[in-house]
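Appendix C. Worked example: N-acetylmuramoyl-L-alanine amidase
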Amino acid sequence: MGKRTLILLFLINTIFLFASTVVYLKKEGNFSLYAYLTKSDGIQLVVKTKSSASKNTVRKIYANSKKAKIRYKRSIRTRRFYIKYQDLKDIYKEIVIKKLFPYDYFKNGYYYHKVRYKGAESLWRVAVWFTGDGMNYKKIKKINKLRKNSLYYKTTVKIPENLLLSFLKPEKKKKSGKNNLNSGKKEAKPLLEYRKDKKGEYAIYRLKKGEALYSAVVVRFTGRLDADSVMELAYKIAERSGIKDVTDIPVGYPIKIPVEYLLPEYKPKNSKEYKQYESDLKESELLASKQKIEKSKNLEGVYVILDPGHGGADTGAMYNGVWEDDYMYDIVCRIKRILETKTKAVVIPTVWDKSSGYKIFNTKKIKLDRDEYLMTTPKFNLNSKLASKVGVNLRWYLANYLNSKRIKSGVNPSKIVFISFHADALYKKVRGTMIYIPYAGLYRKKAGRRNRVYLKYYEVRVKPFYTFTKKEVSVSEGLSRKLAYKIIDNLKNNGITVHKEKPVREFIFRSRYSRPFVPAVIRYNKVMIKMLIEVGNLKNKKDAKSIANPEFREKFAETVVQSLLEFYGNK
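Step 2, the predicted output written as structure tokens:
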């Protein structure tokens, strides 16, 4: 062993002797983070770097105040910045505490802290570290029935929940949003910080443990869901954030999201888009609350229009051995059977399969056929080249005709429901059911067709054009949201996976650059309560496997019927 090595070992041992402990936390870009606990100074965060970073840069990232004092040391190759625990942002306080005290835990209203560092822990310091106020040492002392302010090695101190810093408190389970029209709005806004630089406005989100850029940022905050736009926008955000490897982003790293890509509910509160979204949401909630939903015992007098998506030449999404057309049709057939045998609802399917009728298939593999027809007058053959264009519009024409016919016969508009069933093809890690509802912020005053292709159908000829008012769409949005959340809550309670971030949505993005849009089948639909259900994501193997399973399809159908019964006042 050389002389130089001996000196180095002596210096390291000396540092640890006087420092009590040094714990490596993680690497963030050019910075390496350490928790540094000394008998004299308590806990500090050490930011070590080989770059020419300044105190101001380090302060902006890690400190909770512009006035926070940062001690700086420089050696031949590295710079070290020392930030006192009290001056850290909560996210870094949490990282430090969990690393230094891995055996602490919360139970029955108390946080239990085990003393691990001889001579470095006192009641005052424990109060500062865990409650944010040293004066709380008196309360901690009284609760633990301690005589002295010093703490002995390996003893356990309990701290009541009401004194704890917020990040140490257990997360409270949120109440279900069954009767709250606004329950779809995430309380994630405080997680975003808004800033501006030469490239424009952006929001900062700091990744948590186990989160990925694709799902925790792109899907959650921008609303992009299809694989291409998620990947494209993820790399755009990574470039903006100075991230070289999107699969290796440190916990707490500041992700910069350009404001123009944010969903309106995540934009700055003073922005036009956020204010408009909030206004539309409140208006739909208010108007819907004034619209009386007539209760119906066992769904008597309720008309349910069931629309299985695609069909014929248009199979829809097809991944992992499952396709949209026939599997969604099977779910509709199951809902139809349950409603007709267990309730008094009137069921109106929009599509009919010539070869199998409304037969249910209790198999994982369903034969792919193309002989479905849309139930217009005359029937529209979905196995035609016009299926994906003309067929889409004929669906809402058919729904509008059926709606108008029932209302003219005296049916209350709130007792007519339209549900379109689909399966998505999204980014492969996105899972679960999502429901799309109409959105007053994107309503269109007039919609219709007058060309020959459409006029051959009675449902178009009887009324080629329809008009809409914002108030009408707002009421529809509010009531549809109420039923949508009823379905989502019941799916979760019945063990069916729903989309993690926002299971009920008002619009879709086709790409990173596209404007949001509402699917035509509900956008131009006059039925008061309407929605489009994406049962699952076929690009996700687990979702595809579930949809292939006849037991899942039966449970899904039962849950939809259960939700309709509850919505109309049945227990």
